[in-house]
Each structure stands twice: as C-alpha cells, then as structure tokens.
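Slack export, channel: ligand-projects

TW: morning all. Re-posting the request from yesterday since it got buried. We need the structure predicted with the small molecule present, not the apo form. The ligand is zinc ion; the SMILES is in the block with the sequence. No rush, but it would help planning for next week.
GE: picking it up
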Amino acid sequence: MRIFAATLATETNTFSPLPTSLAAYKELAFFRPGEHPDDAPRMCTAPLFVARRRAAHDGFTLLEGSCFAASPAGITNRADYEAMRDEIVGQLQAAMPLDAVLLGLHGAMVAHGYDDVEGDIVERVRAIAGPKCVIGVELDPHCHLTLKRVRLADIIVLYKEFPHTDVVDRAHDLIDLTLATLRGRIRPTMSLYDCRQIQSYPTTLPLMRGFVDRIKALEGKDGIVSVSIGHCFPYADVPELSARVLVIADGDKAKADALAIRLGEELVSMRGKTMPQFYDVAGGVAAALASNEAPVVVAEPSDNAGGGAPSDNTSILRELVARGAKSAALGPIWDPIAVRLCFDAGLGAVIPLRIGGKIGPTSGVPLDAMATVTGLAREAWQSFGPTRVPLGDCAAVQVGGVEVALITKRTQALGLELFTNLGIDPRAKKVVVVKSTNHFMAAFGPIAKQVLYIDSDGPLSRDYRKVPYRNVRRPIWPLDEDTTPGLIL
Ligand SMILES: [Zn+2]
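GE: finished. pasting the full token output, ligand included:
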C-alpha cells in the first residue's frame, strides 16, 4: 500500500490586521519531504508524523510530502498559498499511484481568492488521485466544515478536545479508518448537520465535557465509525461559517443521518450554555487581586494570538500596574522591538520601555514604563500537549509588581515554559494573566487554584454580534434569533 501525507495549515482571522505570507510558515513549520522532525508533531502535522511511526508495522509505504503551517493571523497571500499548494500537489502527482492520501489541514484557512482553501486542496488531490484513492483528512474543530470538502473526502476526523490535546490520538483514528477502508473492512459514509450557530465550546467545562465523552462512547459501535463536532472559527467572514456535526457510519447513510440529527439538535439546545462568564478589565483584575487563592489564572481570549490577534494589547497590564498588583505575571505580549531593546540593554538593566500597543487600534495604547530586564532567552519554545511551539527570542521585564513575558514569534500562552524559560515561576505568583482562549488550560489549568476570564478591548470580542460579518450566510445565531438548523448532507 502506498500512502501519501502532507500538511498545509493556518487558521485565518479575516479581520486580523496581520497579513500571512510565506515568512509566517517559515517561522512555524516549513518542512520539505523527510525534513519533519522526529521529536513531536507541529501544528496540524500529526497525520504525517504518526504515519511515519506506523508505516512499517501497519504494512504501508509512506510517501512524504511537504508540511507547511503558520500561526493564526490574517488572510494568506495568494501567490504564497498557490506555491505551497502546487508544491504538495506536484509531489502527490509524482508519488502516483497511491492507495490513500492523509492530509493534516486546519480547516479554517483563507487565502486571497480562496474562501475554502481546504476544499480547494481536497478537490485538486481528488482530481489527481482518482475516485478510488482513499482521502483522509484531520482537521481542527475550529474549522469550516464546508460541503465541498465533505463531499470530496472519504474520511474527515476532527480533534475532539478543546484544548486540543488529542491531535495525535485523532491522527491514529484517521489512519485506523483509512487502513480499514483500504482493507475493505468498512465503507465510510458521511452525514453533516448544520447547527446554524456561532459559539465557543471549551471541553474543560462540564456541559461540553459530558457531550464529548458521550460521543466517544458512540464510536466503534452499532455501525458508527466516527463523530466530529465542528465548532467553526468565529473570526472568519466566510459563507459557511457555522457549527456542524459530522457523523461517519459504516455503509449505512440512514444511520449516519439519524445520529447527526440527534447530536446536532443537542448542540443547538446548548446555545449560550457552553462558554464561561466574562469580566470586564477592571472587574476581572479586581476579582483576581481580591481572591484568597493563588495562583489565580486570568485568561484574555480577546487578544489570543491563536485566534489571529496581535497579542499586544496592554489593557490588563495597565490595570494591574495601576492597582499596584504584587506578584503578578502576564504573557505573552508579542513585541519583537521591545525584545530587541531588552537584549541590547542586558540582563538586570533598568530601561525606559514602550511595551505593546503597536499593531492596530485593538492593540490599545502602549505602556511606557521604567522596566527591569529580569530574563532573556534565545530561540525559546513552549510545549502544547505532545507538540512544540516556538516562541523565538524572549525577554522578561518587571514593571512594578508585574513580570511580563515578551516574545518575538507570535503565539498564545500554551505551556508553562512561556514563563519558566525566563525565570518566572507561575506557580509562585498570585495572579497569572495568559493571552489565550482555552488552550492554556492544558498546562495552566492544573496549577490554577481559580480561573477567571476577561473580555478586554482586544480584537476578538466574545460577543459575536459585535463582529462585522458581511459574507456569513444568515440567519445564524446569535446574530439572528430564528434559524433553520438541519441535515445538509
Ligand atoms: Zn482550534
């Protein structure tokens, strides 16, 4: 058996002021065939990474394509997208004949001229690989499960957990199902239910936790092969933005339909119930400082680089300093210029520093302060579950009683290394502020005595009615009250 694997991935915030070009892919993951490291998968590369480990044991030949992935930001440059896509498609062509293709995609990538990048990729792969080739795709749940890609692929598996700690487990699922299909043990048939809603679904909160646990228990029984919940990525102005439920059954479309409808209706009934409560900046900082617990972990989803935000808003930092907070840490603030100045000043230096507030109106105003350089680290990284995420050169500065982690490779707070690389121990702090929506919970949840959420003036408002959509198909909740959810495939 000959199986080809490749990755082309980012999550596109179409409202972000940060364009995405080849440089952003080179910064995060840019591997030609055979170059992918053996230590851990990078963003969305788990299908290739896992296939490499399984090939000999499972009796297939892996043909490696390129793996390209960029941190979430704005729309990808058209020429750069087409060049990366055509490179992979060319490798695929050269690798023919193939029995299967494994694609590690994100699912919410937009390039100039392409609203549905993954649909475009799967369409080109299908055109070359032919109708009999099994196309298996792993996607992030923050994807747009478009009709085009579901019609053209044979098997689509999404991560179930948010935070996405099951990227490798789901890649194993994808490969299991692909091999079972190739060996004639299953005949996958997919059904898709559109919930007509925009919402966030952290699986660390009880309602979604229970839902996902029940879904897992359904798989592998009674002809149900796989169930995926597409959360959608709310900061994308694309027509098919919406939460969708995907069910794969073994040869029995009616069975897949029935379960997709049942679970889809259940997800519709959860509208408004799956997100945590949010404080404003003043209220959240006051609550954190007043808490008797330590550390209190305060999340700022509205400036989450993982959703395409610049991660340089200073509103919470400003509030902490103004209130004279002691024993606080905050990060990451993406500010390559400030990091450069800190390296030039040297460890222990006290310098006038302009922090954050640089990229756009939603970055707020910068914080100007006398800052002590308390930590410096070259080419640092943080872990996220089984994956590694680069932070670039980093600096820690102390402003009043607040230590700030400044980074050069834009990403969200995922691993404790964000702070410990710089000599900051988040466990010993009273308050730890993390720019992240929910992925921080994988590492910071276990050390947090209390978790609070602040909806700041960063660009990713938690009230989706404030997002200036123009292309999203209506009606959709919560922009509209009356919607018509239902089976669409
Ligand atoms: Zn995601």
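GE: first-pass observations. Residues 140-142, 164 surround zinc ion (CB under 6 Å). The chain has 13 helices and 18 strands.
TW: perfect, thank you
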